[in-house]
Amino acid sequence: MKTINEIQDEIIEEFSEVDDWMDRYQMLIDLGNEQPPLPQQEKVESNLIEGCQSRLWLVCEQDAENRLTFRAESDALIVKGIVMLLIRVLNGHTPDEILQADLYFIDRIGLREHLSPTRSNGLLSMLRQMRMYAMAFQAKGA
Fold first, then answer.
1. Tens digit of pLDDT at every position of the chain (142 positions)
2. pTM of the predicted structure, to 2 decimals
3. Cβ neighbour number for residue 44 with a 10 Å cutoff
4. Which domains does the chain show, CATH number per domain?
5. What sign does the dihedral 141-37-4-82 (CA atoms) show?
6. What H or E segment, with its residue span, contains residue 86?
7. Residue 130 main-chain phi, psi, to 5 deg
8. Which residues carry out catalysis?
9. Calpha distance 38→71 (Å, rounded)
């Protein structure tokens, strides 16, 4: 299994092959479109992320090996793509790995500077929620 940093480096490389930001947005939209929808019973208030302009549901589960799996759905295509990038980086890792990760790819691919202020807030909210899940599972396992 790849490390969080190896996955981030892959993403940086993929985005560096595309110079134009309209094309990068299209990459995010395509990523979001690949995402399977969440079952209706998981689209509940408790899974909604606060601070996102669009509606974004995030679900997290822990397997027997203490690895976390995230699933998400949003009604906004760019948001779906952004959360899919985060899921790609963090899925399959332990709470400790997630909490210690420096997610440098966000700045390196220029994501933060090319998002509107409300989308940037949404990105921070997604990250915060993923870390909260990691902390909760870490505390449960201790």
1. 899 999 999 999 999 999 899 999 999 999 999 888 999 999 999 999 987 678 999 999 999 999 999 999 999 889 999 999 999 999 999 999 999 999 999 999 998 888 888 888 889 999 999 999 999 999 987 5
2. 0.94
3. 11
4. 4-141 (3.90.1010.10)
5. negative
6. helix 77-90
7. -65, -40
8. 52
9. 7
